[in-house]
Amino acid sequence: MAITERTGRISIRVQATGWSLLSWVLFAGSGPLAKAMMVSGWSPAAVTSARIVLAAALLLPIVAWLRPHALRFPRSDLWLPFAYGLLGVAGVQLLFFVAVAEIPVGVAIVLVNLAPTFVALWMRIARGARLRGSVWAGIAFAIAGLAIVAQPWQSASLNVVGLMAGLGSAMCSAAYFLLGEYGARRTDPSGLTATGLLVGAVAVSVIAPPWAVPFDLLTAPTALGDRHPPAWLVLLILAAFGTAVPYLAGLRALRELTPIAASVLAVVEPLAAAVLAWLLLGQSLHPAQVIGAVIMVIGATAVQVGGVSGGVVRRSTGPGRG
Length: 322
Fold this sequence. Notes:
single chain, mainly alpha, two-stranded antiparallel ribbon, 2 strands, 2% strand
């Protein structure tokens, strides 16, 4: 019986890991799409604002039609979609683009992917969880491999604003995992995703109104390999499959995965983005970056194995908050 239960838990975890990987691969696909739009004349803020607003506009009516009960939250959880939307949707995106504008992209990517460390510290301090050494080692390997891929040492152009924005984006990303885990196990993930995107859309629209984008940019051609689709089509794909669907898949995964395991799997995003950039934009990885990618995978695997073998154990003093 014990073996059967353990096998069942592993099977459920494998499925959740699949949902998480799908989420990050789709998020990674948004990178080359957004890059193609920027090359055609869109600003980073305009792309961010438009994709979130359109994603909310696409998903909210569908959820309201198919699962209207998912949009109803208990009074005690009314704060959840606001916190999730402001931090996990708007905060991550906007602060990351501020970081990219002020510091090299490689440094910004490494900073935002410090999220697993913040999640682990929160789990250890706020929730009283005991984390095995394999979990900490896996996080360290994942970050080290990411650093080799991103190569932040290629430029010394750093400033305080960019560094703080990058760290702020990492903290918002950590909040995405922690709030997502809490919400996915208490509410319907589709409702939390739809309302969170709506809150995020309102927040980003205040800073970068998507309706201020010149109409000719919507019809401007983009460059994706040998194809040149109009920007509006790329934006539609970006909103649906690069924003709404990965947010849904990520919350589905957090029903079963710990926030630490899910956050470490996020290292798949820059790796998948690099592969897609090679296929769609002709950008390739150097041999050292391939080695870094292997180290990232080893680190993520170590955290996953640690989680399956009981790498996150709560103290017996009672449940924590967060």
